[in-house]
Task: inverse folding
């Protein structure tokens, strides 16, 4: 089984910065993609940023402010959030698409427990 452990959520003022990290652990054979989603109250979960095969993809609302990076050796993904806005307030979920040693040709999606990010003055 694969587990994702997140850290770095919290409260920050508008215009401030916050960094999130997420480490995947378990019998990982191939870590194909990692990233972040978020869900605000009353809204659907949306993609924030993903990184796969050296390429990145960002939601339009965060492009230019957020940066996703990855340490493949550590199966860890990071999200650097700058110029934060109140509308960034949400629960942020780590995401990974991996195959395991037990099923190396079978990709599955895994999710972290979520971490609260609140942007408020």
Result:
């Amino acid at each position: 089984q694969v587990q994702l452990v997140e850290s770095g959520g919290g409260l920050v003022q508008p215009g401030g910065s916050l960094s999130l990290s997420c480490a995947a652990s378990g019998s990982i054979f191939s870590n194909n993609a990692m990233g972040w989603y978020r869900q605000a109250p009353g809204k659907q979960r949306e993609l924030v940023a993903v990184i796969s095969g050296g390429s990145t993809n960002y939601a339009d609302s965060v492009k230019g402010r957020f940066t996703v990076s990855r340490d493949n050796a550590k199966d860890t993904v990071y999200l650097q959030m700058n110029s934060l806005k109140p509308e960034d307030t949400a629960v942020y979920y780590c995401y990974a698409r991996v195959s395991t040693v037990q099923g190396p040709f079978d990709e599955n999606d895994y999710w972290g427990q979520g971490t609260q990010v609140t942007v408020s003055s």
In short: The first strand starts at residue 2 and ends at 7. Residues 24 and 74 are 8 Å apart (CA to CA). The radius of gyration is 14 Å. The chain is about 0% helix and 60% strand.
